[in-house]
């Protein structure tokens, strides 16, 4: 969601609708934005926890990306409870690369650092994500996963199969209905049948896993619509 006051302008709307958190998206912040502490305080004032979407690849050229430390610092300034990255291109990481990333994440001291399945073959398919999270576990690197239900459609993967393989790593779920129109996929409000199908996915995750709306909320009364959609997701 966007707003003519930017993401901060959505905070009263979300709070009134009954949300308990907000995802701040790096790519939607104004160019040159640096008041992360101020934006974080505004979220706290509205009673909203923060997940920071870095929109960067975590892994490049057999090691953690150079911008990782910067994004972690921004998340810290926001007071974020979690940060999520795209995976990037991962084949295999050496012991030194994993040790460096592990040290970096421990120094950042954020409660939760995640990779999300995106809409690319590198970062949104089961094999590289599974390999990455398994290797992270072996390296004792504190990484978990954001599971975007809809994004598996973009990469041609089966969401339930992915959930069975990756579910134990998942700490945050992007709930996204999808539709195909003129051969193009787009996000949409999930219908009741889709919501019922998601129950099988949710059964593979930890109890009480955080979930977020990742689909358009357009209505004459957007607050009421948001409240209804939050109540629907709470039943999962």
UniProtKB/TrEMBL annotation:
Keywords: Isomerase. Residues 13-207 form the Xylose isomerase-like TIM barrel domain. GO terms for molecular function: isomerase activity. It comes from the Bacteria. The keyword Isomerase applies. InterPro entries: Xyl_isomerase-like_sf, Xyl_isomerase-like_TIM-brl. This is Sugar phosphate isomerase/epimerase family protein. It comes from Modicisalibacter luteus. The lineage of its organism: Bacteria, Pseudomonadati, Pseudomonadota, Gammaproteobacteria, Oceanospirillales.
């Amino acid at each position: 969601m966007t707003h003519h006051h930017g993401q901060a302008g959505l905070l009263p709307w979300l709070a009134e609708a009954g949300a308990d958190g907000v995802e701040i998206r790096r790519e939607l912040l104004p160019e040159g934005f640096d008041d992360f502490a101020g934006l974080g305080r505004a979220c706290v004032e509205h009673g909203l926890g923060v997940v920071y979407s870095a929109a960067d690849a975590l892994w490049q050229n057999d090691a953690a990306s150079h911008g990782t430390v910067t994004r972690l610092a921004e998340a810290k300034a926001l007071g974020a409870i979690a940060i999520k990255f795209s995976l990037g291109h991962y084949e295999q990481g050496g012991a030194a690369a994993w040790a460096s990333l592990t040290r970096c994440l421990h120094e950042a001291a954020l409660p939760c650092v995640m990779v999300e399945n995106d809409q690319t073959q590198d970062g949104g398919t089961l094999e590289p994500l599974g390999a990455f999270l398994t290797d992270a576990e072996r390296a004792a690197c504190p990484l978990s996963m954001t599971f975007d239900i809809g994004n598996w459609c973009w990469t041609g993967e089966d969401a339930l199969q992915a959930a069975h393989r990756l579910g134990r790593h998942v700490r945050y779920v992007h709930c996204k209905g999808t539709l195909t129109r003129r051969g193009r996929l787009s996000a949409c409000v999930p219908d009741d049948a889709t919501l019922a199908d998601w129950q099988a996915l949710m059964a593979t995750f930890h109890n009480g896993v955080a979930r977020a709306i990742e689909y358009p909320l357009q209505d004459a009364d957007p607050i009421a619509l948001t409240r209804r959609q939050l109540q629907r997701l709470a039943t999962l």
